[in-house]
């Protein structure tokens, strides 16, 4: 089912399927919740699965002019509170993982586990921040060209069968929402400390051919949490839920079952 919540006067869209213990899926940039469709379908055979259009993406409205990772986390918390869900797993793809980690900082009592799906606890380097400024120019002035290149970069194989569909999905996003999120990513703080002191288990999933978050730069953080698991997808870039669907699903189901079996303090 598709539902709507109001958060800071903005309408927020989410999907809700399946029953039982809950997992919330947060999309990356410049995507929206529709990228989770096939994956949610499978996952909802085991769990209740909520996927959210983060503010400014898909059918969710923008809030002000700057979307921090904290704001995104607060939005997720609001959606889940309105659904009367108190303890759940957050799985964030890339930017969704940045928001997931902000969630872990703000609302650790609600987390039973965190999945960093092609994501990172590190803040942007000075070079990356300059890149963000260039991206903002391109999003505003050359939206189609920006989206064409950005979506191509997501996949290990430039001829991946999902590319066409992903391009259709991102065409629903607004220029304003993409700019606000880019500003938010650029400004985000380093959250390795949240991993270090996390009381919740963390699962990292990485693609060997990821051009956006290269594997070798990501690996050191996987050692940081007290309870940590890492899955490497040999044939994936930045889109494991399409490129290595079965492997990603199995990893998440196994991890989630383990988290949900742990006693709640
Ligand atoms: C994403 O996939 O969410 C973004 O590419 C992440 C980023 O730009 O840092």
Descriptive keywords:
265 residues, alpha/beta, Rossmann fold, 8-stranded mixed sheet, 11 helices, 42% helix, globular, binds D-malate
Describe this protein's structure.
Helix 5 (143-152) packs antiparallel against helix 6. The two termini are 32 Å apart. This protein has an eight-stranded mixed β-sheet, sandwiched between helices. It has helices at 37-43, 69-82, 95-106, 126-141, 143-152, 163-170, 175-187, 192-196, 215-218, 240-243, 245-261, and strands at 2-7, 10-17, 22-26, 48-52, 88-93, 111-117, 202-207, 228-233. The chain is globular, with a radius of gyration of 17 Å. Helix 9 links the parallel strand 7 (202-207) and strand 8 (228-233). It is an alpha/beta fold. It has one domain: Alpha/Beta hydrolase fold, catalytic domain (Rossmann fold, 3-Layer(aba) Sandwich). It has eleven helices and eight strands. D-malate (MLT) is lined by residues 28-29, 94-95, 185, 212, 238. D-malate binds next to loops.
């Amino acid at each position: 089912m598709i539902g709507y919540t109001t958060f800071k006067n903005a309408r927020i869209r989410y999907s809700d399927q399946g029953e039982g213990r809950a997992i919330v899926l947060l999309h990356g940039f410049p995507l929206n919740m529709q990228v989770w469709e096939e994956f949610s379908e499978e996952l909802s055979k085991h769990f209740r699965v909520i996927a959210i259009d983060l503010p400014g993406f898909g059918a969710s409205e923008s809030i002000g002019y700057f979307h921090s990772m904290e704001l995104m986390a607060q939005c997720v918390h609001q959606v889940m509170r309105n659904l009367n869900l108190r303890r759940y797993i957050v799985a964030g793809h890339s930017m969704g993982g940045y928001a997931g980690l902000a969630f872990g900082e703000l609302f650790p009592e609600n987390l039973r586990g965190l999945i960093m799906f092609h994501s990172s606890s590190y803040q942007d380097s000075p070079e990356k921040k300059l890149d963000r400024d260039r991206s903002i120019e391109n999003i505003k002035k050359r939206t189609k060209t920006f989206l064409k290149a950005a979506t191509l970069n997501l996949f290990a194989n430039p001829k991946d069968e999902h590319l066409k569909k992903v391009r259709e999905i991102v065409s629903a996003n607004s220029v304003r929402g993409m700019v606000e999120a880019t500003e938010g990513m650029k400004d985000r703080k380093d959250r390795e400390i949240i991993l270090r002191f996390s009381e919740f288990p963390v699962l990292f999933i990485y693609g060997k051919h990821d051009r956006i978050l290269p594997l070798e730069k990501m690996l050191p953080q996987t050692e940081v949490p007290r309870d940590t698991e890492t899955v490497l997808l040999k044939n994936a870039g930045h889109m494991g839920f399409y490129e290595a669907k079965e492997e990603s699903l199995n990893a998440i189901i196994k991890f989630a079952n383990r988290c949900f079996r742990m006693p709640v303090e």
